[in-house]
Every structure is written in C-alpha cells, then in structure tokens.
Amino acid sequence: MHRRTLLALTAAAALAGTPVFAADNKKDIVDTATEAGTFGTLLAAAETAGLLETLKGDGPYTVFAPGDDAFADLEDGAVDTLLLPENQDVLTSILTYHVVAGKIMSADLQTGMNIETLEGSPVTINLDNGLMVNDATIVTPDFEAANGVIHVIDKVLMP
C-alpha cells in the first residue's frame, strides 16, 4: 500500500471516529487499545478492576471491546457507579464477560456459537444480521495484538 493511501485511510478513519490499529502490531492488547484512543473508559475500568496485567499477559485473548461511545450509551451515572471501589466485583464480572481465552478471528465465528468468557458465562455469535456477539454488533473486527485480538463492539455486554 502506498504511504499516501495509508495516510489518507488513517485520516479518514480518525475523522470518522474509527479506531486505527497498526497492521503488524507487536503491542499487547492494552497498549493496542491505548494507541487506538477510543477505549479510555474500558481501560480505566480495567485498571479499577485490576485486569490490566491480565490483558498485558501472554494470552492469547479475544476481547470484544466496547468503545467510549458504547459506555456513554449506558444509563446516566452507570459508569461512575461501576468504578466505585465497592462495585469492583460487579465491574470485574462485566469486564471479564468481554474476554475469551484464545485468539478467535472473525472468520472463525459461526452463527449459534456459544463461547465461554473469562467471567464463566458464554456469549452467543450470530451472523444473520451482520457480525454480532449477543446483541452487540462487531463494528471493527480482527485487530491483532501481540497477545490476542480485539473486536470493537457497539454495546457494553452484560452477563
């Protein structure tokens, strides 16, 4: 790909609010999400829940990652409440429901798949109306990190 084309695509994605990920990413999931710039809430929540080190670990992990807009769509005050120390168990449960052990690319997903999350409950895949995990649409799939893959979703999943 020509440098000018890559720059144009990167600029267009940034203007559209789409996270930009490096194609040959050697960074872990946390650093990849940080670099994208659209996962501030998710990363703050993961830090509060004590999950950053896990997501920086060897993995591999598949993360269905809600962006900042997905968290903004929650009820007013929901994020602030979840970030309170007394709600750490609930927050950890919600966040680990977004993470799967192993690296699962979008081409591996099939309608009706139930994939067990780190939280312990499964998420369900549906390809009938686009690429979906439960009731969330995977808006940007297959962003590889050194220790797994990130699929950007448009909603926060609830176990």
Write the layout of secondary structure elements.
Blueprint: H1 3-16, H2 29-36, H3 40-48, H4 52-56, E1 61-66, H5 68-72, H6 78-82, H7 88-96, E2 99-101, E3 114-116, E4 122-126, E5 132-133, E6 136-145, E7 148-153
Parallel strand pairs: 1-7
Antiparallel strand pairs: 1-2, 3-4, 4-5, 5-6, 6-7
Instruction: Tell me the radius of gyration.
Output: 15 Å
Summed up, the helix count is: 7
* Termini separation: 41 Å
Count of individual beta strands: 7
Share of β-strand residues: 15-25%
Biggest sheet, in brief? 7 strands, mixed
Find the structural class using helix and strand composition: alpha+beta
Secondary-structure element series: HHHHEHHHEEEEEE
What key attributes describe this structure?
seven-stranded mixed β-sheet; alpha+beta; 159 residues
What does this structure look like?
The chain is an alpha+beta fold. Helices cover 35% and strands 22% of the residues. The chain has 7 helices and 7 strands. It has a 7-stranded mixed β-sheet. Helix 3 packs across helix 7. It is globular. The N terminus is likely disordered.
Summarize the model shown.
The chain has 159 residues and is of the alpha+beta class. 35% of the residues lie in helices and 22% in strands. The protein has 7 helices and 7 strands.
